[in-house]
Write a structure and sequence with these properties.
Strand order of the largest sheet: 1-4
Order of helices and strands: EHEEHEHHH
Number of strands: 4
Strand content: 5-15%
Oligomer: single chain
Radius of gyration: 15 Å
Structural class: alpha+beta
Largest sheet: 2 strands, antiparallel
Shape: globular
Helix content: 25-40%
Number of helices: 5
Length: 108
């Protein structure tokens, strides 16, 4: 479930708004996406995967995190490199793509 949208990192590209299949975001007055319908989140990770600046954190849960959970704290997420971690695991964060190294011999 989407838990954090980093206003500090967000570049207002609206990718998360565009790719969300259940339309859980609205554009805030300041241009930063606002999570307005968290209960509609399907934990598909699309917003985190498409965010070019790692401004989102989706917890791998179908229910919101309880109050006080450290994963709600942006500093905690940054320290542990959790913002955008799903995108990096897909190989979308720069460097070699995962498929290139995941199968068979080295490609020519």
């Amino acid at each position: 479930m989407i838990e954090v949208v980093s206003a500090e990192r967000c570049i207002e590209c609206d990718k998360c708004i565009e790719v969300c299949p259940t339309h859980v975001f609205d554009r805030g007055a300041d241009g930063i996406p606002v999570l307005t319908r968290q209960s509609d989140c399907q934990t598909c990770f699309m917003c985190e995967a498409y965010c070019p600046v790692d401004a989102l954190f989706v917890a791998p849960r179908t229910e919101p995190l309880p109050a006080g959970d450290p994963q709600l704290d942006e500093a905690y997420l940054i320290e542990r490199e959790l913002l955008g971690s799903y995108r990096r695991k897909l190989g979308w964060g720069g460097g070699q793509l995962g498929a290139r190294v995941a199968i068979g011999p080295e490609l020519p």
